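Q: My collaborator sent me two sequences in one message, no labels, and asked for predicted structures for both. Can we handle them in order? The first one she listed is below.
A: Yes, handling them in the order given. First sequence, followed by its structure tokens:
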Amino acid sequence: MGRHALPALPSLTAPIDRRTRLPVNDSTRDGETMLDERLLAAAIDARRAILADIAS
């Protein structure tokens, strides 16, 4: 991703730093928790990829 993705860092960091769940709509609390955890993991992975490309 590299330097071209730097403008996205604040948007990726915001859900990572939140202390509340991301708003998702699922029929069960467990489903909402699972979706929230997947979104958080995806944001962490994307941030890690951006920062790794910059460090190299």
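Q: And the one she listed second?
A: Here it is, processed independently of the first:
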Amino acid sequence: MLIALAARTTVVAGRPGVDPPDGYTVISTGPYRPPIVRQVGYSSAAAGEGQALGSGWIHAGVASSGGFEDQLFAVRSVSAGTVHGRPAVLSGIRDGAGMIVWEPTPGAIAFVGYGGGNPLDDSAVEALRRLAGRARPVTSVGWQALRPVTIEQVNDHRRPGPWPTKIQRVPGG
């Protein structure tokens, strides 16, 4: 069936379209955006990376992968080696000067990025690699124990559109 769906998928003006086979229905025509992005932010100095990243802000988190993977095709992304044994890319798909993104489990992405500090140079890339290497998964119970706040916002990846997302952030993280 996947081959049949792929054969019935076209791209017109940069947008995918599907002519569904009998028994299937297209349920969404816009780009996918994850309904919840869980992230924590902190200063680069607090993470011990102030020299490499400057006085910027680091954000690390997890989201469902579809929307991020869509954007990797639309922006310049390069291989970043591996993070925890999984292939990773370096990109600028979200706010900030740079971001390392990897898929820790199928259907989920993890990211560590920064912005507002030094330019994305070799030193900054190595700092992002170190931060990603120190990243550890948090269970749902562990996440809730951090007492995140939920911020309703538009998740547009630099493009306008009606894609509301709940960003859960750890206050003062």
